[in-house]
Amino acid sequence: MARTAGYELLGLPLAFTRVRTRLRVPRRLLREPVGGHRVSLVRCVIHSVLSGGVGLLGWFLVMLSVLALVRGLAYPLVTSGDYETSWGGPTLVGAWAVHAGLAVVIAPVFVGVIAALGRLQLRLTRTVLGGHRSWWAIPVAVVLAAVGALFFVAWVHQI
């Protein structure tokens, strides 16, 4: 799980590398056979866009999980002191317990989602650059990148 999560986070920088590097990293990191098949400039650009979009979503989830952990575990240090309307309030102990508990639950879930996105990155590499054809990998990557962008915009507007 850690390797596929790591491969997901490498998806964004790998989107800007040579094709040989994009094919070599999953072989070495995940020990998965990935070979190039009729790689063209168009396929390379498609892989860059899709892999970069899914990679950005992974990094956004990492940022959210770190933010949740920091804000949850260090709740008294990052809050303004008004616990009446806070989750778990009206006391500091209750608010801290609820925020820390949510952070501890949410962070592993995000790591699991990032690992699943790493499997999608591998399938994208095999589909676009390799000879394997998975009909679902490209539409799922497009939808996830679009949903991730909308989620990011919504998150920015709420802070």
The main pleated sheet reads as: none
The run of helices and strands is HHHHHH
How many whole angstroms does the radius of gyration measure? 19 Å
Helix content: over 70%
Sheet-strand content, in percent, reads: under 5%
What sort of overall outline do the alpha carbons produce when their principal axes are compared? Answer: elongated
> Assembly type of the shown chains?
single chain
* Total DSSP helices: 6
How many separate domains make up the residues?
Answer: 1
N/C terminus separation? 31 Å
Low-pLDDT stretches: none
Number of strands: 0
Protein structure class? mainly alpha
Overall residue-averaged pLDDT value? 86
Describe the structure.
The protein is mainly α and 159 residues long. The chain has one domain. The chain is 76% helix and 0% strand.
In short:
By secondary structure, the protein is mainly α.
Give me the secondary-structure topology.
Elements: H1 2-14, H2 19-29, H3 41-73, H4 75-78, H5 92-129, H6 137-158
What characteristics describe this protein?
single chain, 159 residues, mainly alpha, 0% strand, elongated
